[in-house]
Amino acid sequence: MTMSSLKSHEVGNIGVVTLTRAHKRNALDEAAIQEIDDYFSNVPSHIRVIVMMAEGEHFCAGLDLKEHHDLERGAVDFLRVCQAWHRAFDKIQHGGIPVIACLQGAVVGGGLELASAAHIRVADSSTYFSLPEGTRGIFTGGGATVRTARIITADRMIEMMLTGRVVDIEEGHRIGLAHYVCNTPQNPVSAKDFSMQLAERIAQNAYLSNYAIVTSINKIADMSATDGLFAEGLMAAVVQTGHDVQSRLNEFVTKRARKVKPGEDGIGQAK
């Protein structure tokens, strides 16, 4: 696949996709969104986890405002741009493959919308977050009102948009914008290395279980309690009769499975 805004490679059964517009702080133009859509529409069948990274000092500074200014889009034109972002990011969130976003520097506006579509967010200590749309005279259009607001609450998102303030990594971690923080005295591993180690661990899970986790939970959360409980039971029935369930349960019964115990991080190491 030929791409100008992204590059991709594989490490075993892990796909790595990297934003390559470092000269623009990895701001997303129409071509970049289309390439994200293309990549997540054509993931090879052997890939079990995807890690999203970015070149340069920043993960993503959001919408390419220069392109937006130069094109002078009308309302219908920009609605179509928003719908393209929604389609691309839906394929990240609901594509059936766990996606880890490896963050550093600016995760701003549409960059936060992109990160919010990932299932796990691993952040370097340099990471900061912002929704400056209010100060730019624009409005979020890449899914923040659905995804980011669900993570941090609508009330907090409103405050971030009205003030345009920067949320540092400590606060971002506390409110759920990052699940793990790296390159710190407590966790000196780099965010990229930690993301790959996490991907390797998740790739060892049962494929059907991973698929159910990343496709079902958010959809069930949108349902009524009655419908959600039925959907949960139905998915459990499908997953727990999968072909590799018995072998994994046998490992547990024969005490060969890894024990669940406190004091471990996401890669199975002591904190």
Automatic annotation (TrEMBL):
Keywords: Lyase. PROSITE patterns: ENOYL_COA_HYDRATASE. The keyword Nuclease does not apply. InterPro entries: ClpP/crotonase-like_dom_sf, Enoyl-CoA_hyd/isom_CS, Enoyl-CoA_hydra/iso, Enoyl-CoA_hydra_C. Belongs to the enoyl-CoA hydratase/isomerase family. This is Crotonase/enoyl-CoA hydratase family protein. It comes from Yanghanlia caeni.
